Amino acid sequence: MESNKRPAYLLLSLICLVTLDQAAATTDADRNRPYNNSTSNHLGNILLELEKISASLSSIGYVNSKLISNLRENASRLYDWRCVKVADIAQLGYTCTSGIGCHKFYLANLTWNGARKSCRKDGARLAIINSENEAKVLKNLLLENYQFSAYVGIHNQFKEDEWVTVFGDTLAETGYNRWSVGPPKISKANCGVLFEDGKLLGIPCHVERSYFCEISETATC
C-alpha cells in the first residue's frame, strides 16, 4: 500500500515545485519591471542632457571663435591708429589727395601678410578703397608702374564669402564693393587686389604682388 502512495506523493511534490517556480518567476519579473523602466528613463534623460551639453559646447566654440576674430581685428585697428607727421609723409614717398588720403605704391612683390607688415613700418596700412574716386587714384598709380594688380587691405580669411577690411569692416561699410569678375568663390582666393580695370579681385594670399599702402588724413599730426 505504501509503495502505491509513493508515486502519488512524488507527483504532488513535483506539481508544487513547478507552481512555486512559476510564481517566483512572475514575482521576479514584476519586481524588475519598474526597475528596468526607471533605468531606461534615467538613461534617456542622460542622453538628453548630453545633447544639450554638446549643443552648448558648439555654441561656446562659435562664440570663442568670433571673440578671437574680433580681438584680432580690434588689435589690428589699435595698432594702425597712430599718427604720422605731415612732414614725414612726403619723405616716405606718399602722394596725398585732398578728401581721399595719402597713398604709396610699392613695386616690390610680397605676400598679402608681408605687404601688410611693410605698410605698418611706415605707420600706414594696406589701402582701403572707400570710393570710386579713390579707386581711380590707385588705378592710375597701378598703370603708371605698368602693373596689372596690387594688394589692398581686404580679405575673407576668417569667414568664407565675407570680405572685410584689415579693420574688420564689411565692404558695404567701406563704400566700395565693385568686383572685376564678382567675388571669388574658390576657398583659396582669400586676399584682395585692385585689378587694372579699377575693380577688386581675389587671389591666394601667398601669391607675391605689388601693394598699396595708405595713410588716412585723420592719421596725420
Structure description:
- Residues 102-214 form the C-type lectin domain.
- It holds the Pfam family Lectin_C.
- This is Hemolymph lipopolysaccharide-binding protein.
- By secondary structure, the chain is an alpha+beta fold.
- The protein has two domains: 1-80; 83-219, Mannose-Binding Protein A, subunit A (Mannose-Binding Protein A, Chain A).
- Helix content is 51%, strand content 18%.
- Strands 1, 2, 3, 4, 5, 6, 7 and 8 form an eight-stranded mixed beta sheet that branches.
- The longest helix is centred in the N-terminal third of the chain and has 79 residues, at 2-80.
- The protein starts with a helix and ends in a 6-residue tail after the last strand.
- The model is unreliable at 25-35 (pLDDT under 50).
Give the helix/strand layout.
Elements: H1 2-80, H2 86-91, E1 95-97, E2 101-110, H3 112-121, E3 125-126, H4 132-144, E4 149-155, E5 164-165, H5 171-174, E6 191-195, E7 200-203, E8 209-215
Parallel strand pairs: 4-8
Antiparallel strand pairs: 1-2, 2-8, 3-8, 4-5, 4-6, 6-7
